[in-house]
Description:
About 45% of the residues lie in helices and about 10% in strands. It is α/β, with parallel strands linked by helices.
Amino acid sequence: FWKFMADVGLIDKSLGQEPFLKLRAPGWILGPDSRKMSKRWGNVVTPDDVIPKYGADTLRMYEMFMGPFDAMKPWSLTGVEGMNRFIHKVWRLVNEISNFQFPISNKSDSREVYKRIHQTIKRVTEDIEELKFNTAIAALMEYVNFLQELLARLKEGGGAIKPRDTGVIRCAELEEAKRTLLLLLAPFAPHMTEELCQQSFGSTKFEARNSKINSIHQQLWPEYNPDLIVEKEVEIPVQVNGKLRGTIKMPNAKCQMQNEVEALAKADQNISKHLTGDIKKVIFVPGKLINFVTNS
């Protein structure tokens, strides 16, 4: 269609004769017998083989999680079952958060939640734009594990999972974490996230492009705040003659300064005991590594 419209002058010549800037071809999918899926070999797995038992969302997510977009990937029923377990984990987690009746009062917990929210938005957004769907899903899995651990910690601190009612104390941080999870997961699991959106938000319209359509797929994509994803403290490995002798923690603002990193490393007893000879050279990678080269 593009070629035809270009030939008859319906497309601006500056856009060129090709409809795409780059062609990205997906890699082959190998069948259960490790051969390329083909009717000839009788090893084709169709959606009808998977969806009735595991659902369309499981199939979609497993296909995108199998590996890099353009790499050859083997089909695995075990992998399908694993993805199905993850989808059920998300379902349970979202419902637990919806019924959680304990506010986060600890400021460090609050900062931790918001930092992880914005770090995940950044990772998933950038990976989707680069067609790295498998690593985007991996980031969401890490995010879900983080929220599960957070809930467990809050329960130990006196929180409780109770049926929702008008007297439930809502937790703003967890509500935001849940909302972000659903929005980021929506392109991968559209059916489940739509159902969870309806259960969680009902007729509430939040940042909708079309206020008449209450669907998660009509919401604005979340944006991350760069100020919230910066680590306040970083760990820097310290080597002596190429061997790791310890790590030091220091403010992120100072990890780029060699004199600050060097002084802190020398002050650490576990590291200084290895600095027995004269220091001939110091190899410093700002914010990443420091290596003392000695003559001993």
